[in-house]
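Need a sequence for this fold. Nothing fancy.
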């Protein structure tokens, strides 16, 4: 990877440079010509290759019910070729034109990958037949001989390149080497092996392997900390052509083939190629609520459509937001055999200048100054964790690593993030590569409210140390439960260990601004908080502001409420509610004030995720002190109902029915419905011109499930007025 790469055009012209004899070998798709007859010198006239041992046929045992795919946990891939995992033996059978005589006959196998195979790069692998197989090293031995056939057990190296290899059988004759023809039916995919102890991605718990490698559906937690929402996502890593699409991503990222056995390198380049910034990668992000010429991020139900569209068009697919990047990244990792899970961090900091501090600037009135305030708090942010050893770091930093394909900030000049050790983030050891300081800030920043006085002095009104990274969650193993993993990322809020981790991070260069030069005297004798009533999209609700006057003085507080419609990234679209009032605060009493929010105030401007952000600031007139509080809130969005009709048996037609009732006081126009279920049906779409208010649409889809077992159907509804409408149904498909 350290080669100085010039632009693509120059590279095409001059494939050779002074430092290497062969051009870079970074495409799994390209091949070289392999000679079928490699003569040692002049061939005598009477030589007839037919006199020697000759290969008639090769059997790969590549059906999903046969030994190789069963033992290697690759039987779920919809792919006719042999797929095995590295560091574990597999079997093939070779039929010759006559019985094999070990005393005189000599043959060997050759596995090749890419355009310029070289033995020292692991891209040309000759395998001689021996007597024993060493675990985790390339080798082959004969386990059965019958008539003209032999059966071989082949062991691949536990550090071998992951990709698609070509197989040749070579036979030695006194006058030259005779090889089999190029035959794509014998191509062999080799994947990472979490079941193999010598593999860098080895995971020792079978239940976890079933979840993090073999489960093809998952759950995305979204909404916000007070109102957690969840939706299913179809990863579909075993669907047709997905494995090839994932290998293509590594070609697209121009990762040297010799580096493709290393999960650290693969994660690093994948986190860049998942987004389209600076490398024309898979998904184009859009956070501005206009999704012309593309699919709204909320409409996708899974990764398969996105990866297949990219694989065929080679152009970025529009559009994604964080959970879409994370969903596709998870498919990529699981497909290649790297254990992976999707993580949600609630109240995630996007700290523009990485100073562990989100600065909110207030004006004289105590209202937020939008021009000065650059940092933002995402209601939630999704990233991935991938499981691997980290031989490049000190002992103890292996295990789960954060990787993030959402383009937020550049790392080494590209939009990418990770892999960063979760353990290193927890302990503040952010000096260890890659991008640990950025992730540390996402889960540990403080919120600082400050205000400029008339004389230019900066007064800090409030520091909130507990708002960010309040809750970090993922889907449970073998269940749809939400599991909290906050303590994997940080120590108990306010504990000595937490302080120590912060000091360590600061020592290792995470900038933390000191607040000495600013005056900070927190307001002690009056406390203010507010609550937002839970509400369904389209209804009115109220915000209740409470004051507690702990002093013996009477106060009046000039109070401002600002209601904003925000993207889930915390960026404001517009202010839809401004309300100010004067609150009388009696000594030693609590008092509450209600502000009503009506649906016609917010409906016309509502964004995708129906998110609001409320700022309440109050100035105590007698002391000049300012109190500030902020909260995000999400409206309840209606769901789709899914039901089935007919018997649910593999290879037999059944019906899926999707229903939806329009809850808004308006007609929905140009509505798109999507439905998919891995192993049951490929994504189907339907457009509806109009759904009048209070009316119900019913959509029936016929399908033939491919395989038995517990499966999930996932549906989404999307139109300009209403997004993030989902439904799902778990179904049991019986054996025929």
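Here you go.
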């Amino acid at each position: 990877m350290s080669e100085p790469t010039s632009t693509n055009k120059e590279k095409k012209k001059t494939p050779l440079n002074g430092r290497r004899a062969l051009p870079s070998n970074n495409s799994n798709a390209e091949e070289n010509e392999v000679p079928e007859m490699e003569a040692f010198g002049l061939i005598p006239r009477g030589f007839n290759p037919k006199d020697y041992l000759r290969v008639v046929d090769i059997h790969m045992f590549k059906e999903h019910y046969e030994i190789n795919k069963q033992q290697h946990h690759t039987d779920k891939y919809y792919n006719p070729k042999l797929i095995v995992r590295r560091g574990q033996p597999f079997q093939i059978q070779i039929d010759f034109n006559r019985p094999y005589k070990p005393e005189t006959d000599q043959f060997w196998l050759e596995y090749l990958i890419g355009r310029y195979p070289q033995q020292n790069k692991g891209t040309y692998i000759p395998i001689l037949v021996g007597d024993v197989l060493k675990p985790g090293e390339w080798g082959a031995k004969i386990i059965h001989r019958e008539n003209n056939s032999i059966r071989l057990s082949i062991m691949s190296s536990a550090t071998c390149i992951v990709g698609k290899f070509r197989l040749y059988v070579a036979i030695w004759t006194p006058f030259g080497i005779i090889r089999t023809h190029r035959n794509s039916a014998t191509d062999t995919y080799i994947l990472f092996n979490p079941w193999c102890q010598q593999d860098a991605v080895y995971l020792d718990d079978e239940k976890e392997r079933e979840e993090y490698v073999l489960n093809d559906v998952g759950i995305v937690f979204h909404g916000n900390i007070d109102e957690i929402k969840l939706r299913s996502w179809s990863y579909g890593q075993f669907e047709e052509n997905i494995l090839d699409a994932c290998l293509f991503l590594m070609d697209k990222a121009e990762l040297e083939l010799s580096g493709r056995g290393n999960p650290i390198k693969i994660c690093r380049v994948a986190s860049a190629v998942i987004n389209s910034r600076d490398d024309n990668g898979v998904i184009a992000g859009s956070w501005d609520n206009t999704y012309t010429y593309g699919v709204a991020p909320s409409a996708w139900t899974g990764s398969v459509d996105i990866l297949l569209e990219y694989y065929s068009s080679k152009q970025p697919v529009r559009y994604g937001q964080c959970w879409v990047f994370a969903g596709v990244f998870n498919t990529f990792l699981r497909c290649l055999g790297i254990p992976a899970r999707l993580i949600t961090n609630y109240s995630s900091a996007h700290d523009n200048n990485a100073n562990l501090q989100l600065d909110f600037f207030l004006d004289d009135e105590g209202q937020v100054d939008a021009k000065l305030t650059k940092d933002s708090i995402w209601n939630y942010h999704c990233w991935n964790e991938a499981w691997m050893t980290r031989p490049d770091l000190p002992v103890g930093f292996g295990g789960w690593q954060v990787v993030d394909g959402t383009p937020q900030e550049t790392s080494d000049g590209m939009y990418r993030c990770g892999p960063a050790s979760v353990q290193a983030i927890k302990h503040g050891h952010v000096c260890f590569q890659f991008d640990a300081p950025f992730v540390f800030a996402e889960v540990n920043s403080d919120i600082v409210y400050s205000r400029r006085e008339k004389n230019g002095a900066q007064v800090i009104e409030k520091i909130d140390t507990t708002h960010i990274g309040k809750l970090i969650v993922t889907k449970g193993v073998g269940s749809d439960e939400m599991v909290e993993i906050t303590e994997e990322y940080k120590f108990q809020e306010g504990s000595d260990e937490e302080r120590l981790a912060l000091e360590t991070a600061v020592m290792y260069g995470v900038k933390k601004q000191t607040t000495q030069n600013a005056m900070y005297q927190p307001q002690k004798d009056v406390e203010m908080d507010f609550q937002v009533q839970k509400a369904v999209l389209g209804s009115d609700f109220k915000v209740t502001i409470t004051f507690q006057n702990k002093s013996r003085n009477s106060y009046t507080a000039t109070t401002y409420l600002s209601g904003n419609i925000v993207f889930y990234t915390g960026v404001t679209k517009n202010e839809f509610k401004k309300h100010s009032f004067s609150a009388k605060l009696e000594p030693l009493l609590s008092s509450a004030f209600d502000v009503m929010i009506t649906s016609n105030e917010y409906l016309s401007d509502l964004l995708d995720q129906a998110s609001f952000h409320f700022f309440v600031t109050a100035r105590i007139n007698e002391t000049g002190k300012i109190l500030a509080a902020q909260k995000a809130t999400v409206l309840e969005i209606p769901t789709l109902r899914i039901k089935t009709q007919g018997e649910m048996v593999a290879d037999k037609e059944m019906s899926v029915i999707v229903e939806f009732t329009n809850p808004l006081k308006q007609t929905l126009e140009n509505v798109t419905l999507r439905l998919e279920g891995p192993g049951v049906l490929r994504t189907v779409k339907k457009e509806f011109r109009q759904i009048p208010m209070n009316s119900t649409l019913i959509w029936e889809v016929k399908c033939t499930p491919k395989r038995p077992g517990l499966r999930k159907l996932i549906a989404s509804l999307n139109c300009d007025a209403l997004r993030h409408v989902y439904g799902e149904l778990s179904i049991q498909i019986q054996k025929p």
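For context: The radius of gyration is 30 Å.
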